[in-house]
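--- STAGE predict ---
source: upstream dedup step, 1 unique chain passed
mode: sequence only
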Amino acid sequence: MENNKKKYVNLDLKSLGMIVALVIIFIIFYVLTKGANATPTNINNLIMQNGYIIILATGMLLCVLTGYIDLGVGSVIALSAACSGMLVMDKGMAVPLAWLIAILIGLAAGLFAGVFIAYLDIPPFVVTLATMLMGRGLTYTLLQARTVGPLPASFTGIGTGFVPNIRIGVVEEIKDAEGVVTQAASKGLDMVCVVVAIVVTIGLIITELNTIKTNNKYGFANIVPWQQIVRDVVILAIVWFFFIKLGQYNGIPVQLIVVGVIVGIYHFVTSKTVAGRQIYAMGGNAKAARLSGINTKKVFFWVYVNMGVLASIAGIVLAARQGAANPKMGDGIEMDAIASCYIGGAAASGGVGTIIGAVVGALVMGVLNNGMSMCGMSTDLQKVVKGAVLLGAVVLDVTTKKKKG
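--- STAGE serialize ---
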C-alpha cells in the first residue's frame, strides 16, 4: 500500500502558477476593457506583437540557465533589421539573400560575444553591455538616422502574412454604390485553425499517456490524476480559445508558424538532448559540471552564439511586422526578453527554467502590455507595473527556495 502512494506526487504549483496568472490577468483586462481584449482582431494583434519577443525569450532562457543574461540582443535586432532592409531597398537584393546576411550578422555578433565570454573569461554582463553599445552605434552609422522602407510584400509576409485558410460559414457580398459586387467577405471559421487545435489536443494526450507509461515502467511517480487532468484542461482551453479567435480573423499568422517551429526545436533540445542537460548542469553548479567532464567553455560559447542568431531572426520578424527598419528598433526589448524568462519560472541563479515557461512569461508580458495600452495607461505607469511583476516573480522564486532549504 505504501508503494502505491509513492507512485503519485502532487503537481508542482509553480509550473502551473504562471499559466493561471496569465488567465487571471487576461480576465481582469477583459472586464476593464469590456471584452475588447478578447476580440479576434486583438488576439491576432497579441500574437503579431509578441512573436519576436518569444523568439528572443527562447534564446535568452539558455543564457539565464547558465546564470547570466545577454544585454546586447536589442542592438543585434536593430543591426540585423537595418542591414537586411538596406540591402533590399537600396541594393535591390533578393529578400532571402538579405535575410541570410542578416542572420550571418547575428551569428558574427554571437561569435564575438562568445569568444570574450567563454575563452577570455570576461564577465557576460560587461561583454553584452559592450555589444549593446557597439551594435546600436553601428546601426545609427548605417542608417544615418533615417527609416528604410516601406519594405516589399515578399519581406513583410513573414511578419504580417497568413497561412492560406479554408473558411466555412456565412459569405457576405460587398457591393459598390452601383450595386456591383466588389468582393466577397466570409465571416465564418478557418478550418485550418480547428485542425491545428485538434492536432495539439491529440499530441498533448499522447504525450501524457506516454509519460505515464514510462513512469510506471521504471517506477517513477506520476502526478495525481485529477491534478493532471485539471492542468491539461486549462492548457487545452487556452489553446482552443486562441485558435478559435484566430480562425474568426484571418487564420494562422506566418509569424506564429516561425515562432512555433523555434519553440518546438528548443524545447526538444533543452529537454531531450545531451546539450540541453549540459546547460542545466552548468547552471546548477559550474564547478561540478566541469569536474564531471562537461566542457563549460564550449557550452558558454554556443549559448551566446545561438543568442546572436535568434536575435537576428527576431530582427527580421520585427522589421517585417513594422514594414520598415529604423535605428531605434529593439531599444530596451532585451528587458522584456529577460523578464519573460524570470516571470516564466527561471531561477535568477541559473539551472532552473523551461522553454515553455519562458513562452508563458512572454505571453504574460504581452497581455499586460496589450491590456494596459487598451485601458489608456501611460507608458510610464506600464513600466512600473512590469517592473513590479518581474520583482514579484523573482522574490517568489527566492523565498520558495529558502523554504525548501
